[in-house]
Q: What sequence folds into this?
């Protein structure tokens, strides 16, 4: 009964439309996979405190400004309005933790100003202030786990299918709080006329290897862009590349892990150049990345089980050229791998005959010009 005074937690009463909260949460314990591959990811999770209305969105990379901006704006527009305040944890994307005063970053300030929402944050080191969103995290994860058990599988064909699965669960949660949300929605501030930017920009120079470097990731681009200076709009899930004012290409965004660099290589961007000098494939720094995953990768492993020969390199380059020219990557890879596993080596000529589109033979149609007098027959006789 004796001792120092303890800190007392005073439960807060929230008014409708006053506060929205958001945070990121890891989903890895649920062991989700996409097309058989383990899918390491987080969710951006937003909640209106008064009603409990929820929004959740997949995040492939880290807690970046792009994912925060995309997720928060999607939540505002999905809910149909903006709360007076938005509270978040000490997210590096939103707050500049390198300064003692921990001021908002310039981009986050502009985002909040665009929506006329007051940005607040939890006090550093006070865990219970983030309790509302942590409870919401646990509740959502339990719901997801339950539905996965009912579904009978934690594997999804595509990321889009998985996001749709999550959307159904979130919609069910929101139906349960519909009455309170209908009340809260009346108190939300109006949305602006348009969204604001949810990307950052970077200028890059395309190298002589037909690559660019963005956020510690090396991407290949079509060789026609070599030596050009491009403007890159960096979104959470994609890169949009502009040459001047013209959008010339979109690429899926890849995230580097930790402090390491990563690569996003598409053989289609460089295969025509590589086909002119196939021996360059043997010692290329991008060799393993140039080979598509799946059947082509397995075929390459089998071809080079003992050593990498010039013949194997030329064969693989010619196969990739066929795959690109005739848009038959999946079918060609499956066919060649299956035959190779049966001890049959399919020649390039044979593959070309099987997968190249048939040449259309246009018949030579001979027509005869009729006489002018033939029209008299149609009119029922001669007319002078």
A:
């Amino acid at each position: 009964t004796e001792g120092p005074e303890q800190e007392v937690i005073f439960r807060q009463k929230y008014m409708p439309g006053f506060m929205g909260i958001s945070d990121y949460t890891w989903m890895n314990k649920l062991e989700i996979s996409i097309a058989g591959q383990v899918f390491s990811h987080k969710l951006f999770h937003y909640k209106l405190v008064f009603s409990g209305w929820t929004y959740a969105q997949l995040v492939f990379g880290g807690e970046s400004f792009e994912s925060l901006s995309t997720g928060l704006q999607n939540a505002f527009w999905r809910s149909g309005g903006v709360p007076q305040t938005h509270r978040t944890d000490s997210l590096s994307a939103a707050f500049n933790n390198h300064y003692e005063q921990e001021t908002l970053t310039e981009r986050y300030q502009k985002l909040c100003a665009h929506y006329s929402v007051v940005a607040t944050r939890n006090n550093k080191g006070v865990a219970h202030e983030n309790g509302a969103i942590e409870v919401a995290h646990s509740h959502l994860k339990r719901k997801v786990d339950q539905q996965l058990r009912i579904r009978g599988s934690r594997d999804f064909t595509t990321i889009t299918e998985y996001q749709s699965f999550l959307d159904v669960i979130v919609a069910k949660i929101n139906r349960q709080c519909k009455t309170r949300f209908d009340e809260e929605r009346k108190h939300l501030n109006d949305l602006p006329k348009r969204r604001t930017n949810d990307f950052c920009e970077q200028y890059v120079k395309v190298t002589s290897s037909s690559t660019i470097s963005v956020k510690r990731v090396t991407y290949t681009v079509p060789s026609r862009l070599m030596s050009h200076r491009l403007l890159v709009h960096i979104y959470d899930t994609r890169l949009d590349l502009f040459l001047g004012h013209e959008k010339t290409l979109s690429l899926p965004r890849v995230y580097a892990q930790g402090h390491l660099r990563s690569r996003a290589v598409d053989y289609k961007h460089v295969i025509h150049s590589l086909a002119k000098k196939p021996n360059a494939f043997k010692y290329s720094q991008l060799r393993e990345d140039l080979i598509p995953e799946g059947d082509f990768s397995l075929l390459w492993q089998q071809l080079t089980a003992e050593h990498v020969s010039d013949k194997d390199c030329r064969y693989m380059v010619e196969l990739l050229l066929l795959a690109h020219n005739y848009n038959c990557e999946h079918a060609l890879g499956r066919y060649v791998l299956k035959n190779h596993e049966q001890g049959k080596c399919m020649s390039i000529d044979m593959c070309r005959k099987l997968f190249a589109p048939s040449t259309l033979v246009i018949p030579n149609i001979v027509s005869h010009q009729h006489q002018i007098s033939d029209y008299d027959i149609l009119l029922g006789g001669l007319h002078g």
